[in-house]
TrEMBL record:
<dbReference type="GO" id="GO:0004022">
    <property type="term" value="F:alcohol dehydrogenase (NAD+) activity"/>
</dbReference>
<feature type="domain" description="Alcohol dehydrogenase-like N-terminal">
    <location>
        <begin position="36"/>
        <end position="99"/>
    </location>
</feature>
<comment type="similarity">
    <text>Belongs to the zinc-containing alcohol dehydrogenase family.</text>
</comment>
<dbReference type="Pfam" id="PF08240">
    <property type="entry name" value="ADH_N"/>
</dbReference>
<keyword id="KW-0479">Metal-binding</keyword>
<dbReference type="GO" id="GO:0005737">
    <property type="term" value="C:cytoplasm"/>
</dbReference>
<dbReference type="InterPro" id="IPR011032">
    <property type="entry name" value="GroES-like_sf"/>
</dbReference>
<dbReference type="InterPro" id="IPR036291">
    <property type="entry name" value="NAD(P)-bd_dom_sf"/>
</dbReference>
<dbReference type="Pfam" id="PF13602">
    <property type="entry name" value="ADH_zinc_N_2"/>
</dbReference>
<keyword id="KW-0560">Oxidoreductase</keyword>
<dbReference type="GO" id="GO:0046872">
    <property type="term" value="F:metal ion binding"/>
</dbReference>
<dbReference type="InterPro" id="IPR013154">
    <property type="entry name" value="ADH-like_N"/>
</dbReference>
<protein>
    <submittedName>
        <fullName>GroES-like protein</fullName>
    </submittedName>
</protein>
<keyword id="KW-0862">Zinc</keyword>
Length: 253
């Protein structure tokens, strides 16, 4: 089958002939209908590859799948693993979301960009307001260069659940973001302005994708996109780099 493959970074992709993938146990062979750039996908595929069986996956937080440990290079579709710019794609069944008889081209922009924004909004909506906290310090660490590794060591490498930043500078917020654990929460405070609380959002979950697809099916989303044929992949990349796109680039097969 034909596929568009990026063989070297910062160079144009190439059309190559590759073997048609064969699904294994628990996997599905998909004939591609449309793929959004930078990623692709009558079912759509969740853009983050996940195992489906670890604690994070089974609790609906697939973007923190334990297959991707802290500090490891994340391999996902189109970045280290085969993506959607080919005629066929094999994926595990648990990564698919049905869209019924809807046009796949309309959903291609939602599987990455759309669902990531949705997840960020949902994260903000889930912050806990009105809780009463009792403060005490069991351990004190001097705020200097080794602070982050010391904090990580105190949590056995897992990161911190809740962080309250009373400085609110770019440096301290960057430190908080780096050593917060997956699904951790950061409260930023600055005496020069009102106190604020924010969440860190990374990727999205399969449930997010189902929600976004339902919103699209109900006509509640305005999806801006520009279609390109499979033979126009390089033209689509060039338009993306040059800022000529008015929406998401979608490769239509």
């Amino acid at each position: 089958m034909r596929a568009s493959k990026l063989e070297q970074w910062d160079r144009p992709g190439k059309y190559v002939q590759v073997l048609k993938p064969v699904p294994g146990y628990g996997e599905c062979l998909i004939e591609m209908k449309a793929a959004g750039l930078c990623l692709g996908e009558e079912a759509v595929v969740h853009h983050l590859k996940h195992c489906g069986i670890c604690n994070f996956c089974t609790s609906g937080a697939e973007q923190h799948c334990e297959a991707y440990k802290r500090g490891d290079v994340v391999l996902t579709r189109g970045a280290g693993l085969d993506g959607g710019l080919a005629e066929y794609l094999v994926v595990p069944r648990h990564e698919l979301v049905s869209i019924g008889d809807q046009d796949p081209g309309l959903y291609a922009p939602l599987t990455d960009a759309g669902v990531a924004v949705y997840h960020a909004v949902q994260s903000l909506a889930q912050l806990d307001y009105g809780k009463h906290w009792h403060w005490r310090a069991d351990k004190v660490v001097l705020s200097d260069a080794p602070t982050g590794p010391k904090l990580l060591d105190m949590t056995n490498g897992n990161g911190i659940d809740y962080i309250v930043d009373f400085v609110g500078s770019g440096q301290t917020l960057a430190l908080a973001a780096k050593f917060s654990r997956p699904q951790g929460r950061i409260l930023g405070w600055n005496h020069m302005a009102t106190s604020c609380e924010f969440a860190l959002s990374i990727g999205s979950t399969r449930q997010d994708l189902e929600d976004v697809c339902r919103l699209a099916a109900a006509g509640k989303l305005r999806i801006n996109m520009q279609n390109f044929s499979f033979d126009q992949i390089q033209e689509a990349h060039d338009s993306l780099r040059a800022g000529r796109l008015s929406g998401r680039a979608v490769i239509v097969f």
